[in-house]
Every structure is written in C-alpha cells, then in structure tokens.
Fold this protein.
Amino acid sequence: MNFSFDFSNKNVLVVGGTSGINRGIAETFAKAGAKVAVVSRSPEKVDDTVQSLKACGAADARGFAADVREVEAIKTGIDAIAADWGKLDVVVSGAAGNFPALAMGMSPNGFRSVIEIDLLGTFHVMQAIYPHLKKPGASIINISAPQAELPMAGQSHVCAAKAGVDMITRTLCLEWGAEGVRINSIIPGPIDNTEGMKRLAPTEKIRAAVVKSVPLQRMGSTDDIAHACLFLASDFASYISGAVIPVDGGWAQGGAAMVGAGLAELLKKSPD
Ligand code: NAP
Ligand code: COA
C-alpha cells in the first residue's frame, strides 16, 4: 500500500501508550510526522517509548508517568504538555486492566480496579483533555473491547467497564459535537502478541480456537488498529462521530457466522 497520512503539525496524546496496541498507535502517528505524547504508570516504559517515538520520526516526543485513576496527576501532566505544545488535535485513550476471573472468583476490589482503570480512567482523561482540544477539529478515539457488546464468561468487570467506555464516547459525541470535536470508539478484535491476548488466550489450544472464530481466520496486528486510528483522526473521517467501530476481522459477527457455517454444512449434505 503506498497511501500515506501526513500528521505533521498535529499534536497527538496516547494515554496508556507504552505497550501493545496503544504503543503501536503512538509509533504510527510518530511515523506520520506528528508530535506524540504518551502516558502510563511505569516511568521506564514511558522513557523507552519516548525514545522509540523519536526513532520513528516524531516531530517531538513527550511522556509522563501517571495512573489514570489519579485524576490530579493526569490533569497536571496533560496541562503541562498542552502548555508546551498548544492545542491537542488527537487523543487516543486506551489505558486498561484485565485478568480472567469468574464473578465469584474475584473480590469487590478486583472488580473495582478494572472499573476504575478502564471506565473512571477514561472519564478522568476526557475531563483533563477538554480544555486543550482544538475546537473545531479535534478527534478523540477511545479504545474499547469486544466485551463492551458481547458478554464473555470470566470478564464481568471488563464487560461492564468497556460498555461504559462506549457510552462515554456516545454521550460526549452529543455534548461536544457542536464545538466540532469528534469522538469515536474502536473495538479491536484479538490482537496478536499483546498482553491482552496473553491473558485471555494463555494456551495454544485457546489461541487456535480464537483464530478459528475470526471470520478472516487470523488474529489482528497492532498495525491494523493503528491504521484505523490514522483514518479516524484524519479529515477523511470528518463526518464520523459517536461511532463504535469494530476492527476485528469480523469477530463480532463470529458467533452467528459459526452457527451459519454449521447450518450450511448440514444443508449441503441434504439432498433437497
Ligand atoms: P497492554 O500492553 O497491557 O497496554 C496497556 C497500557 O495501558 C500500557 O501502556 C500500560 O502501561 C497502561 N496502563 C495500564 N493500567 C494503567 C493505569 N492504571 N494508568 C495508566 N496507564 C495504565 O494491553 P493491550 O493488550 O495492548 O491492550 C491495549 C488496549 O486495547 C486496552 O484498552 C485493551 O482493553 C484493548 N483491547 C485489547 C485487545 C487485545 O487483543 N490485546 C483486544 C481488544 C481490546 P503501564 O503498565 O506502564 O501503566
Ligand atoms: N483473579 C482474581 N482477582 C485478581 C486477579 C486475578 N487473576 N488479579 C488481580 N486481582 C485482584 C487482586 O486480588 C486485588 O483485589 P484484592 O485487593 O481484593 O485482593 C485487585 O484485583 C487489584 O489488584 P492489584 O494487583 O492491587 O491491582 P493493580 O491496580 O496493581 O493492577 C490489574 C491492576 C489487576 C488490572 C493488573 O493486572 C494490571 O495492572 N493490568 C494492566 C495490564 C493489563 O491488564 N493489560 C491487558 C489489557 S487488555
């Protein structure tokens, strides 16, 4: 593919941008010439990512260590970046926590920790960025998950949290649309070589079953998600807001498709 996006003169913030999918997004915006800042808890991961962003060609690269559960730390760090750079053109919010546990196998604090990181953390980020958004023109992308729409055993905390994240997306689309701020969610499918998949597909058998359940018959890559972010943040997506977009090889359709595939087998065998 020789089509490329130019994000030079754009200021991009990726919250939770120091590993996996979100780091891939940050590095892709860096390759497109943007100024890119990342936030996560680990100062080592932040430093390492900032070095990588520079190597990718970012016009500038920044970062600070903070927990999205700490509203003041998030606000102070974002205020400082905006004071240096001016307005934010693109914000990707994707900090998240996950562990597999049945409802009766997790404490209220276990449930709370995921709600506080994914859902409350998203709210904190939205409040902290609002004063600094370019209006009109800013694009916000919340990183959701299939659990927002598909109930999954062992994921009651994540299902509840990510459903809430998508409702934040849809509500702020109403509240901020008149100012020319677009906000969308991306629902990544199973993305290879990520912490999320390490936790949710810990054995080769589960991994193979996951691959088989994706209509496109492969796991996604971090590039698949990053490219969707480039598009959503670009002027090509200027009429898209409030959308919750699966980038998942058709995974969200997988359950029904699997039933259909079984039926199709049966019908093929039937003489009439
Ligand atoms: P990951 O590598 O663990 O990335 C999570 C990022 O968030 C890291 O940079 C982490 O850095 C940061 N983070 C975690 N807790 C934080 C907190 N309390 N405050 C601030 N930063 C925090 O995970 P991933 O698998 O790539 O997932 C990334 C996103 O995609 C998540 O939103 C996830 O729900 C979503 N997703 C993933 C998949 C998948 O297949 N992996 C599928 C669907 C959706 P620190 O540890 O330094 O804080
Ligand atoms: N099963 C059941 N409960 C679990 C658990 C598991 N596998 N892992 C953690 N918990 C519980 C803990 O026991 C604790 O509850 P308690 O105080 O009642 O004992 C609660 O969750 C919080 O754990 P803690 O380790 O103190 O939280 P933290 O804030 O340091 O970390 C997590 C948050 C648990 C989400 C941690 O896994 C994390 O930091 N994840 C980030 C990376 C990630 O999940 N990436 C994938 C994204 S899709």
